[in-house]
Amino acid sequence: xxxxxxxxxxxxxxxxxxxxxxxxxxxxxxxxxxxxxxxxxxxxxxxxxxxxxxxxxxxxxxxxxxxxxxxxxxxxxxxxxxxxxxxxxxxxxxxxxxxxxxxxxxxxxxxxxxxxxxxxxxxxxxxxxxxxxxxxxxxxxxxxxxxxxxxxxxxxxxxxxxxxxxxxxxxxxxxxxxxxxxxxxxxxxxxxxxxxxxxxxxxxxxxxxxxxxxxxxxxxxxxxxxxxxxxxxxxxxxxxxxxxxxxxxxxxxxxx
Length: 256
Known about the structure:
Blueprint: H1 2-5, H2 20-44, H3 49-77, H4 96-105, H5 108-128, H6 134-139, H7 145-166, H8 177-198, H9 213-219, H10 226-255
Helix pairs in contact: 2-7, 3-4, 3-7, 4-5, 5-7, 5-8, 8-10
């Protein structure tokens, strides 16, 4: 158990990013995620919104409980007073730690916008946080506390996204888009402030760190004014594109 939790550092060598162990582990999580989302979503499809919402409440409690446990363990075992600097829920994937509970416990247009936000970024976060988590799987063994918790939280995010769509809770109303943008804007501002004071790189607003954002970082020569604006602009474009594609598919299905 001490080795699993990495207390004192992992003694095992990491199997490596895109190793068969990495791919088998994350693929297993993704299969479980999809099966649960489809089965539970179809079971609840004809139920009222209050009953449908119970599943989102459970997902909200689980994702925050796992993440909180991880933060407490790392902060108490790392021996570093500033270990919390990189553990704030200000990464793009971490936004779901706030938006899933918001979708579960809020009402009205705020709830609708939060549900849509989870739908838009949930699957993206699940894929990037499992198959695309090169930094994690290069640094830690596959079956380690860090990677297991990261895999669970990201697939809970993906599960919730799929469940909302399958159960019929996604509205994707254009009138709710300003609230969706407001949620994104608040997190971008919080991430930017944290980056300035803590020297972090939340939401890749400082640099690309080996991600495709490096293309834009290099394009503006690392300009710390234009680069974060471009990153935030890409988030906005992604939301708009997702809305357009989702509603196009929805209209075609209803037309049939």
